Amino acid sequence: MTDLQDLYQELILDHGRRPRNFGALAGSSRTSEGYNPLCGDKVKVYVQMEDDVVKDISFQGAGCAISTASASIMTETLKGKTRTEAEQLFERFHDLVTGKKAPDDAPELGKLAVFSGVSEFPIRVKCATLSWHTLRAAMDGKDEIISTE
Ligand code: ZN
């Protein structure tokens, strides 16, 4: 493994063990739940929008290190972003984990680039994108449970 891969691995393990913005968000205006039956990952995303801006965001759930770390880094990244920016980041992130884009092609992803290795494990793509699909449903005001299947 290269040093960069070691660093990525370290960040994923760290966020998987000590997720940031974990817990219910008092005063959240929107929530949604997501489920990835392939792996058993469950996530609930809380988001508080102010006009078109993500004012605060948190999540709860239980899942593998990839899904937990992805939700954790997503919440860190999206605070203060507009809804349009969030949608664009999701698209870039999706391209990254499905191998359509290299991390160097999308510097705006920042820490999210640590998930580039997921593209070598297609079954893990759903773990990495579950929280993003769930966030999108929350922003759309959908209250059904989102499944990756
Ligand atoms: Zn998983």
Explain the overall architecture.
Helices cover about 40% and strands about 20% of the residues. By secondary structure, it is of the alpha+beta class. Helix 1 (about 5-15) packs across helix 2 (about 65-80), helix 2 packs across helix 4 and helix 3 runs antiparallel to helix 4. It has helices spanning about 5-15, 65-80, 85-95, 125-140, and strands at about 30-35, 40-50, 55-60, 145. The protein has a single domain (about 1-145), classed as Sufe protein. Chain: A. The mean pLDDT is about 90. Strand 2 (about 40-50) and strand 3 (about 55-60) form a beta hairpin. It starts with a helix and ends with a strand. Strands 3-2-1-4 form a four-stranded mixed beta sheet, covered by helices on one side. The structure holds zinc ion (ZN). The site of zinc ion (ZN) has 8 residues, from helix 2.
Characteristics of this structure?
149 residues, alpha+beta, binds zinc ion, Sufe protein. Chain: A, 4-stranded mixed β-sheet, single chain
The span between the termini is 32 Å
Please tell me how large the radius of gyration is: 14 Å
**How many distinct beta strands?**
4
Q: What structural category do the secondary elements indicate?
A: alpha+beta
CATH domain fold name: Sufe protein. Chain: A
Q: Strand portion, in percent? A: 15-25%
Overall structural domain count: 1
Which cofactor or ligand species appear? zinc ion
Architecture (CATH level 2) name:
Alpha-Beta Complex
The average pLDDT score comes to 92
Order of SSEs, N→C? HEEEHHHE
Number of helices: 4
- Identify the overall geometry: globular
* Lateral arrangement of strands in the main beta sheet: 3-2-1-4
Helix content: 40-55%
Report the sheet with the most strands, covering strand number, pairing sense and barrel closure. Answer: 4 strands, mixed
